[in-house]
Design goal:
binds NADP nicotinamide-adenine-dinucleotide phosphate; 16 helices; seven-stranded parallel β-sheet; alpha/beta; 11 strands; four-stranded mixed β-sheet; 394 residues; Rossmann fold
Length: 394
């Protein structure tokens, strides 16, 4: 019986995870579920899955909520505040931690779980983008296993022997696929006017709002290039992106002999989640079988960097190294939040990030404090730029 802490239980990945877990009551027990402020949704999940702990990381102690949780889910203790995330991620009674918090907020509890030597199933890509060297070093020191949940990295993991890069003599390149998002064919001059609702209407995947906007700008793929660099120890020039609008081939690896291996499935997050939960065994995910004859054609094209400047910014930040990826990530979170709140145009997201990368020079990312400092400076630089852009548009 594997005892699981699910960080970010009320989100899209959280829902898919609980769907898979509920199919295997003989294999998994939910040890802890966390949300930020969605109290009612978390208590409803606690009533259904009966974890030992439920955590509301964005709320202070609240006796009424505590009572409601005790009534709905007897045996579940409700904890409050961000520190409680680390408590449930490192508890000795927990075997595996699935990180599905969105954004930089997932960094501290994920690093805590890695340091505690847990099996860490990682959806929260921002963690590796910000602090890849720390996370990988901490995993090597503690013996923690890292299993990627992001569908592309999970696909690459499945195509590599033991999930590891066999070395440059054997592995020629990793090809990450991208759907191209909702604006793949939108006339370029119309991109300036697109709304948050349009940006969040992904053609193939149902996801949270932040990652949906990241898919529309293709920053999502840029973050994934950086994530792949750390997970699979591959240089930037060995990581390629191809647009594949059907979202059936989730990624590929090419070997020195010219063989390419790919992983295919319907675009359903339960597939990579079930793979990581069951690893090294295979378990039922609930996803429908793939009928390739019904799919018909699979197509691939190179990304247009005029349409997707965020992808180029991510490669540049990865090549620059040090704290540049943390700056990229923080500026992106700030700009996307402003776009979702109606304070920034879609096409200005990339400009805000480029400004932050110029304004906050990269420094060596040799301590976590340096990364967090770069993150804070980038948020301020991007927020200032957004405020000036808003004033100029008014
Ligand atoms: N969705 C996908 O299909 C998918 C695929 C691959 C990778 N990912 C990655 O997985 C992560 C989660 O994505 P998602 O789409 O599931 O996000 P989501 O639907 O927005 O859910 C985010 C979760 O994180 C919690 N949260 C938000 N802000 C927080 C904070 N400051 N501190 C602690 N918890 C916080 C939310 O709690 P509340 O409900 O209380 O706000 C919620 O449980 C992201 O890093 C994303 O890039 C997602």
């Amino acid at each position: 019986m594997k005892r699981l802490t699910l960080l970010g239980a009320t989100g899209s990945v959280g829902a898919s995870t609980l769907d898979v877990v509920a199919r295997h009551p003989d294999r998994y027990r939910v040890f802890a579920l966390t949300a930020h402020r969605s109290a009612e949704a978390l208590i409803a999940l606690a009533a259904r899955h009966r974890p030992r702990y439920a955590v509301l990381s964005g709320l202070a102690e609240d006796a009424t909520l505590r009572r409601r949780c005790a009534e709905a889910a007897p045996g579940t203790e409700l904890l409050f505040g961000a520190e409680a995330l680390e408590t449930v991620a490192t508890a000795t009674d927990c075997d595996a931690v699935l990180g599905a918090i969105v954004g930089a907020a997932g960094l501290a509890p994920t690093i805590a779980a890695v340091r505690a030597g847990k099996q860490v199933l990682l959806a929260n890509k921002e963690v590796l983008v910000m602090a890849g060297p720390f996370v990988m070093r901490a995993a090597a020191q503690s013996g923690a296993t890292l299993l990627p949940i992001d569908s592309e990295h999970n696909a690459v993991f499945q195509c590599l022997p033991g999930g590891r890069n066999p070395g440059t003599a054997a592995l020629r390149r990793i090809v990450l696929t991208a759907s191209g998002g909702p604006f793949r064919t939108e006339p370029l001059e119309r991109l300036e006017q697109v709304t948050p609702a349009q940006a969040c209407a992904h053609p193939n995947w149902a996801m949270g709002r932040k990652i949906s906007v990241d898919s529309a700008t293709m920053m999502n793929k840029g973050l994934e290039v950086i994530e792949a660099h750390w997970l699979f120890d591959a240089p930037p020039e060995a990581i390629e992106v191809l647009v594949h609008p059907q979202s059936i081939v989730h990624s590929l690896v090419e070997y020195a002999d010219g063989s390419m291996l790919a992983q295919l499935s319907h675009p359903d997050m339960r597939v990579p989640i079930a793979h990581a939960l069951g690893y090294p065994e295979r378990i039922v995910s609930g996803a429908r079988a793939l009928d390739l004859a019904a799919v018909g054609g699979l197509t691939f094209e190179r990304p247009d960097l005029r349409r997707f400047p965020c992808l180029a910014l991510a490669y540049a930040a990865l090549r620059e190294g040090g704290t540049a990826p943390a700056v990229l990530n923080a500026a992106n979170e700030t700009a996307v939040e402003a776009f979702l709140a109606g304070r920034l145009r879609f096409t200005a997201i990339a400009r805000a990030i480029a400004h932050a990368l110029d304004a906050v020079p990269a420094t060596p990312a040799d301590t976590l404090a340096a990364v967090l400092e770069a993150d804070a400076r980038a948020r301020r630089a991007a927020a200032d730029w957004v405020a000036r852009a808003g004033a100029a548009a008014a």
